[in-house]
Amino acid sequence: MDGLDASVPTISPHRPLSVSVATFGALMWSGFRRYATYRQATVAGSFTNIVFGFLRCYVLLAVAASAAGGLAGGYGPRQLATFVWVGQGLLNVVGIWGWNDLAERIRTGDIAADLLRPVPPVTAYLAADLGRSGYQMLTRFAPPVVVGALAFPLVAPSRWQTVPLFAASVMLAVVGSFGCRYLVNATAYWLGDARGPLMFWTLGAGVLAGLYFPLRLLPEWLTITLWVATPIPGLLQTPLDVLVERDGPALQAGLVALQAIWAVIMVALAGLVQRRAERRLVVQGG
């Protein structure tokens, strides 16, 4: 991984747990440091998120104003504003877009070096992605939320369990997003070039994750189908619904549990696909 020192310990049969944790932590730190070097990109990205936050917020508030009772999909104006601005802050934390590292390394043949390392590729990339997410949480989450709070009335959680559920939901969203992105990138093992699947993912993920509009605005049967049959609503829609308390405590917890199931499934699928790909890997280029 980029920026990782050669002195990182590897797994030892004498103390496998402690060294495995140290290795995972070192890989997380390398992912954090990698993204911390792009300070200007961080500022520019935050500004872009804020601009689009205003556009999305005004559109959804107009929808709520024209809806019966001032509710759109069960959200009040304050809930919609919170949904938008916290969603803009979480967009880069969850990172549903813009990651093609694995696909590029497969295309160039550099993936062969990853396969020689003592840490499996899925574990190594997951650790680095968690480090990336930690950096984005520190630098990209707060600016849109602060601007949104200054420009619009936002809603604060009224139930004590909302805050820990939201924190758990965000972590699960990061893990689930990684699993989805890894699988899309891994298509390069068979296709040689994953630009097509990556473009398809970019176009579809924002819609199905609830970025452009809350999925609750869709017909109920379609919303339930997307939530149960796909992991994508868990990337943004679930943590945002938990935060704005769109549902009661029991359903809040149920949505996070469903999100956890999908996160485990996606990471397990990523590991399975990686093992299958290694059996037939043909190094291209490099």
Describe the protein's architecture and organization:
By secondary structure, the protein is mostly helical. The chain has one domain. Helices cover 71% and strands 0% of the residues. The protein has 13 helices and no strands. It has helices spanning 16-36, 39-66, 77-94, 101-108, 111-115, 121-139, 142-151, 162-186, 188-191, 195-208, 220-229, 237-244, 249-280. It is globular and about 60 Å long. 40% of the residues are buried. The model is unreliable at 1-19 (pLDDT under 50).
- Helices and strands, in order, run as HHHHHHHHHHHHH
**Beta-strand percent range:** under 5%
Per DSSP E runs of 2 or more residues, the count of β-strands stands at 0
Q: Helix content range of the residues, please?
A: over 70%
Radius of gyration: 20 Å
The DSSP helix count reads: 13
| Shape field | globular
Number of domains: 1
Average pLDDT number: 88
Class from helix and strand fractions? mainly alpha
Major beta sheet, specifics? none
